């Protein structure tokens, strides 16, 4: 295999190797199932260190182009070809300003935990991926414990361990083009704590905040407890309605815009680059900070546009990410990127919350990144999620009535299903639960607890559960929408 290298170029050698092999795969010069040269052979061929080849192969694996087989080497993956589908969502573009709040987030959360105790229940309500690809967890945890054993008897910095912050900064630059230093990063107890910190920093009781409608119900719950006044701007197929956003920025002068720009929860929508540029422009015009919640970053099947934070030139955007959705929720390791005058104030607020995130869980997350396991795990997760995403859409096309509409996300975990206005949602949910199928009721995701009839489906379940659960839901919907 011939790989020309420019050793004087700014691009690292391992990325040049990755780019060349990637081109050979996507052009068809390397076929599915074909074996790549061994690490030793390629290193000798292009006259580089073996570690450089290992790094290049690891990136190709994270890109989903190749897979490693124990003792055999690296092989080109089969292409993930999906039929062309597009979202069929058609929603009324009405702004929601709630006079009362919806159902309890606590009750919904506890119900979801109870469902986990019953393995025979098909739980489409979950907000997390199914456990998979974590066979090396015990070994990684042991290595992590060895590295931090001497500091377990003292407190750590509130902004988090420097090594992990540096790794996350490098990861954001590599994956998303988001240039940040370790001194812009705060490690948090999951992204939920990051949300709480940002809301407490930017908002006071009685302030106006803009959210997407529907939006993440955990964020709604925090805002409710804080006494914040919410403006719910309706979602379109390409994201928040920017015309209405402009109108309410002008009329209500909100103190913050909360948005999930990539793989939105609950709809799965990813906004375009032009949508993001216009949103940033509006925020700059009205000097309104943005809280960008990208909890599902890394789970996209195809490259997503650069985050809003990349476009931020005025320190208006605070960016939030987490390992809960891409690695494991039990670690409770999230992070936020803050620049300019906001960073120190957020660190001080973090200190008052809980001093710092667990030293052990930070070390485990750090070891996952350092060892390359995190990249490989993300690749594995994207591959199985893509298969299950396609399987659920296929089952919905087969079983759901023609009057039902839904989104077609480019990754993440969720498909948002919109039903006709006359659908008796409470009865549908009860009948599904009676047949051991749980669905995320749509009204939980609207600030007023109402909204149009809808539900959220998590497509990361097993293929068998997807087939059986969607067939059951389809039969129930046909009975009520005939």
UniProtKB/TrEMBL annotation:
The keyword Transcription regulation applies. Residues 11-79 form the HTH gntR-type domain. It comes from Pseudanabaena yagii GIHE-NHR1. This is PLP-dependent aminotransferase family protein. Keywords: Aminotransferase, DNA-binding, Pyridoxal phosphate, Transcription, Transcription regulation, Transferase. It comes from the Bacteria. Gene3D superfamilies: Aspartate Aminotransferase, domain 1 (3.90.1150.10), Type I PLP-dependent aspartate aminotransferase-like (Major domain) (3.40.640.10), Winged helix-like DNA-binding domain superfamily/Winged helix DNA-binding domain (1.10.10.10). In the C-terminal section; belongs to the class-I pyridoxal-phosphate-dependent aminotransferase family. One of its GO terms (molecular function) is transaminase activity.
């Amino acid at each position: 295999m011939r790989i020309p290298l420019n050793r004087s170029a700014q691009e690292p050698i391992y990325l040049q190797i990755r780019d060349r092999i990637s081109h050979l795969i996507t052009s068809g010069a390397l076929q599915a199932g074909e074996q790549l040269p061994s690490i030793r052979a390629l290193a000798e061929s292009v006259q580089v260190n073996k570690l450089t080849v290992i790094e290049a192969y690891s990136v190709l694996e994270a890109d989903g182009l190749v897979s490693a087989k124990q003792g055999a080497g690296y092989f080109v993956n089969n292409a993930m070809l999906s039929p062309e589908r597009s979202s069929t969502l058609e929603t009324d573009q009405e702004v929601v300003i709630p006079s009362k709040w919806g159902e309890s987030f606590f009750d919904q959360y506890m119900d979801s935990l109870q469902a986990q105790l019953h393995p025979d229940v098909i739980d489409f309500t979950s907000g997390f991926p199914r456990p998979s690809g974590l066979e090396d967890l015990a070994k990684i945890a042991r290595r992590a414990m060895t590295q931090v054993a001497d500091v377990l008897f003292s407190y750590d910095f509130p902004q988090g361990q420097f090594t992990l912050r540096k790794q996350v900064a490098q990861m954001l630059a590599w994956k998303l083009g988001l240039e940040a230093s370790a001194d812009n990063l705060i490690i948090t107890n999951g992204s939920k704590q990051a949300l709480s910190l940002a809301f407490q920093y930017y908002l006071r009781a009685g302030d106006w905040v803009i959210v997407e409608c529907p939006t993440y119900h955990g964020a709604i719950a925090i805002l409710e407890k804080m006494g914040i006044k919410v403006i719910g701007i309706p979602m379109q197929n390409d994201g928040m309605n920017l015309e209405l956003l402009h109108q309410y920025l002008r009329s209500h002068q909100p103190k913050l815009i909360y948005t999930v720009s990539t793989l939105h929860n609950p709809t799965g929508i990813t906004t375009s680059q032009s949508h993001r540029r216009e949103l940033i422009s509006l925020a700059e015009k009205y000097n309104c900070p943005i809280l960008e919640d990208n909890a599902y970053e890394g789970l996209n099947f195809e490259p997503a546009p650069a985050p809003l934070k990349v476009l931020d030139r005025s320190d208006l955007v605070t960016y939030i990410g987490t390992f809960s959705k891409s690695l494991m929720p039990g670690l409770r390791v999230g992070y936020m990127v803050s620049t300019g005058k906001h960073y120190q104030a957020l660190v001080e607020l973090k200190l008052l919350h809980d001093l710092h995130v667990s030293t052990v869980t930070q070390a485990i997350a750090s070891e996952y990144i350092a060892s390359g396991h995190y990249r490989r795990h993300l690749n594995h997760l994207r591959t199985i999620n893509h298969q299950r995403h396609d399987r659920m859409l296929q089952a919905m096309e087969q079983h759901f009535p023609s009057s039902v509409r839904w989104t077609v996300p480019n990754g993440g975990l969720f498909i948002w299903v919109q039903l006709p206005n006359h659908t008796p949602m409470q009865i549908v949910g009860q009948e599904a639960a009676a047949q051991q199928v749980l669905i995320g009721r749509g009204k939980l995701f609207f600030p007023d607890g109402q909204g149009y009839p809808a539900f959220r489906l998590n497509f990361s379940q097993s293929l068998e559960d997807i087939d059986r659960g969607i067939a059951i839901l389809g039969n129930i919907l046909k009975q009520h929408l005939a």
